[in-house]
């Protein structure tokens, strides 16, 4: 199956930039698209954006213009570049890998894959 490991979180100040990475490994044929989510304290998990196997990216409206997603298939990483960070960006950030349609359960399992998360705190 697939293992996702996020890194790059930490404590930053308002206005700073931060780049998160998600390293993926395992059965790469079980990955169609990958995405970033975040969950702030007391809030629902929020979709931030995604990139598919063709490299097409999509970003959620709240982060357009500040965040960017990229995927390096050679290094097997997906990144989230975050600029102009503000207090509302404080959250746990997760990467997710979606299985392709029709992926065999015996190889890819029944569920999509999540990383363990990396925490970002934005302070003054």
Layout of strands and helices, then pairs:
Elements lengths: L1 E6 L2 E4 L4 E9 L6 E7 L6 E7 L4 E3 L7 E6 L4 E6 L8 E8 L6 H4 L4 E2 L3 E6 L1
Parallel strand pairs: 2-11
Antiparallel strand pairs: 1-3, 3-8, 4-5, 4-9, 5-6, 7-8, 9-10, 9-11
Characteristic terms for this protein:
124 residues, mainly beta, 1 helix, 3% helix, 52% strand
Structural class: mainly beta
SSE arrangement, N to C: EEEEEEEEEHEE
Q: Determine the strand fraction and express it as a percent band.
A: over 45%
Poorly predicted sequence stretches spanning 5 or more consecutive residues: none
Multimerization state: single chain
Largest sheet: 7 strands, mixed
Query: What is the CA-atom radius of gyration, in angstroms?
Result: 14 Å
Q: Could you give the count of β-strands?
A: 11
What's the helical proportion of residues? under 10%
Annotation field: number of helices: 1
User: How far apart, in Å, are the first and last alpha carbons?
Assistant: 41 Å
General shape: elongated
Mean residue pLDDT: 95
